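A reminder from the course coordinator: this example appears on the midterm review sheet, so study it carefully.

Given structure:
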């Protein structure tokens, strides 16, 4: 949790030096979020670049005074950039196929892990809002309260939405586990 000293950088006029410090502070978290949503390093880097460009252009619009509120504002910008990227469906499907093949090649020697391609495909079966919540909760490890603040609804609502998304994921993940078990048995013969 940021302390008051950390929040002080938002109290001074937001000049280019301050914007650079904010970039340094939040780049990794925003990059991880974008990567977990887009599943492709190049696309995630593009989304992060667009996020921080948009942040720099719109920094004077930011009315918060804490790093927590700035982080929430930045995640909203990142979510919009990710959504824009996801809407380019043909490109997104191509990226998934390439990633799936790449991960399968990397995992051929290790049959004990649940295949990430199956997890990614299961997550992609969710709607954008559910993907956003799953990424924030499980990949960014944000609390329900933090997510609720970012999304602008009650914490209980977030808990329910995440629970429903997980219920929707369960059959796909179970099928992937069953397939993995069958492949392990085939390799054992």
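Designed residues:
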């Amino acid at each position: 949790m940021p302390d008051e000293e950390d929040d002080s950088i938002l109290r001074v006029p937001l000049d280019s030096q301050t914007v650079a410090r904010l970039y340094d502070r939040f780049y990794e978290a925003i990059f991880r979020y974008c990567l977990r949503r887009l599943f492709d390093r190049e696309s995630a880097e593009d989304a992060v670049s667009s996020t921080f460009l948009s942040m720099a252009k719109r920094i004077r619009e930011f009315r918060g005074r804490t790093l927590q509120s700035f982080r929430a504002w930045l995640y909203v910008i990142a979510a919009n950039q990710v959504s824009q990227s996801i809407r380019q469906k043909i490109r997104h499907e191509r990226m998934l196929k390439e990633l799936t093949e790449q991960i399968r090649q990397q995992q051929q020697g290790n049959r004990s892990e649940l295949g990430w391609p199956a997890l990614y495909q299961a997550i992609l079966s969710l709607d954008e809002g559910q993907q956003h919540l799953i990424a924030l909760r499980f990949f960014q490890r944000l609390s329900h309260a933090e997510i609720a603040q970012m999304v602008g609804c009650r914490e209980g609502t977030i808990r329910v939405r995440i629970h429903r998304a997980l219920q929707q994921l369960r059959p796909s993940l179970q099928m992937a586990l069953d397939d993995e078990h069958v492949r392990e048995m085939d390799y054992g013969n």
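Residues 155-188 form the longest helix (34 residues). The chain has two domains: 1-87, 111-189.
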